[in-house]
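User: For my dataset I need records formatted as: sequence, then C-alpha cells, nothing else. Please produce one.
Assistant:
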Amino acid sequence: MRIKRKPKYTEGNAPLNNYTSDNTEIRKRIIKKRGTRCSECKVDMAGKMEGLHMHHINKERPNNREENLQLLCALCHKKIHPAMPVDKDIEGFIHRNRHSG
C-alpha cells in the first residue's frame, strides 16, 4: 500500500535520528509479521538481520503506521538514501544471497 499524500520530508531536509523510542520493538513486530525478506529484491536477510532495515516510506520517522513501513535490505535502502553507509560484510552477504532463494 502506498501513502497517498506528498511526503513532508525529502532526502535533503529529513531530520536525522528522530526515531520513536519504541522503534526497535516496532521493527521486531514488522519482521515477525512480514518475514525476513527485502520487499524489493526479495533477498532473505535471516542470516544477517542487521542488514534488514525498516524504511519509513514518507520519510517521517515518527510515523510508524504499518502502511508507512517497508522492510528493505541495506542495498535497496541505500538506493533511496544514497548517502547511507553500508558495511562491506552486509553488502557481500546481500550480493551472495540475492538470487539463491
